[in-house]
């Protein structure tokens, strides 16, 4: 498959102007260079007018690519390669016309590129002295081919652990660093359960790092809270929400703790799951305690005891005094 990040080639003329293709003369030397992180060898071949359909080697047009004829170039420790293609020393003569130079990370001809990573460039060769376009060099000059290095795309999110999809391909969970990204503009989607999906674009430049930070907005629902009896103080996740019954809009989707308190009743607590874009009702019953430990004031009450009840406790002493004159 084609992979611009592997061997994405940009062409810079000797005068410094950039071109999307090479226009030069037969006999010129074309300097090719590139970037290949997937192989220690780059296999070059050429297709074009009056050449075999599957290509030929750049240094000898008599060697067919479908028979193993490639121009092999070594890749250095920095994943770079370069090759000077002398269009006048190729084992034959090329006709004037437009050709394609293919750079592949394996010995694959045109018919088997689906099994390799590759890139290509269009080369238009003219006969010397027959005129040229403004992008052409003078006969015998060197045309330089320079590669565009891949960049890095870093994606983070608040909260973390969100799914990251770039150009429709799942990359992993945030935060994530994605290397080897070819320069260009990409669509980035960041999603997490119970949060709104965030979609944006990111432009990756050659050899640079692009940062994407996605702040996700929670999905919300509606929560209605009732108590029996009514008039209880309601707190949601520890924050006072009002007196029952009440309806709360814009509650974040997920689990929440509801507490209800009312004087003379035992406090009640419940965990409620709010569903995004839906309405949920929670009813908390309040009960009175089974007994009271309230302090009691004791007042002494005087007791009335009947006299008869004490008769047995009374001792009478009778004294007899003699009469005078007897």
From TrEMBL:
Protein's organism: Methanoregula boonei (strain DSM 21154 / JCM 14090 / 6A8)
Residues covered by the PEGA domain: 151-219, 221-287
This protein's name: PEGA domain protein
Domain of life: Archaea
Keywords, in A-Z order: Membrane, Transmembrane, Transmembrane helix
Entry keyword annotation includes Cell inner membrane: no
Pfam family name, one: PEGA
Membrane-crossing segments per the record: 301-320
Tagged with keyword Transmembrane helix: yes
Classification via PANTHER family: S-LAYER-LIKE PROTEIN
InterPro entries given in the database record: PEGA
């Amino acid at each position: 498959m084609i992979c611009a990040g592997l061997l994405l080639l940009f062409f810079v003329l000797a005068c410094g102007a950039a071109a999307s293709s090479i226009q030069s003369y037969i006999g010129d030397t074309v300097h090719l260079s590139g970037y290949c992180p997937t192989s220690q060898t780059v296999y070059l071949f050429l297709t074009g007018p009056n050449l075999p359909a599957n290509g030929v080697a750049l240094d000898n047009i008599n060697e067919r690519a479908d028979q193993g004829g490639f121009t092999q170039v070594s890749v250095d420790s920095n994943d770079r390669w370069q090759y000077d293609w002398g269009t006048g020393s190729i084992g034959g003569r090329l006709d004037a016309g437009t050709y394609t130079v293919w750079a592949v990370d394996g010995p694959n001809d045109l018919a088997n590129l689906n099994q390799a990573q590759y890139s290509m460039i269009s080369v238009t060769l003219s006969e010397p002295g027959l005129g040229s376009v403004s992008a052409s060099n003078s006969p015998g000059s060197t045309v330089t081919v320079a590669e565009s290095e891949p960049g890095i795309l870093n994606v983070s999110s608040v909260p973390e652990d969100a799914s990251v999809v770039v150009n429709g391909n799942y990359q992993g969970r945030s935060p994530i660093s994605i290397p080897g990204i070819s320069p260009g503009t990409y669509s980035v989607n960041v999603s997490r359960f119970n949060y709104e999906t965030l979609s944006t674009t990111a432009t990756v430049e050659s050899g640079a790092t692009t940062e994407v930070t996605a702040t996700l907005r929670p999905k919300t629902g509606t929560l209605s809270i009732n108590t029996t009896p009514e008039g209880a103080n309601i707190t949601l996740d520890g924050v006072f929400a009002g007196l029952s019954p009440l309806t709360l809009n814009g509650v974040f989707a997920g689990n929440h703790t509801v507490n209800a308190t009312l004087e003379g009743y035992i406090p009640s607590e419940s965990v409620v799951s709010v569903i995004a874009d839906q309405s949920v009702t929670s009813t908390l019953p309040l009960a009175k305690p089974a007994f009271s430990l309230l302090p009691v004031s004791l007042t002494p009450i005087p007791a009335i005891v009947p006299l008869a009840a004490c008769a047995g406790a009374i001792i009478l002493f009778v004294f007899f005094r003699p009469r005078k004159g007897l």
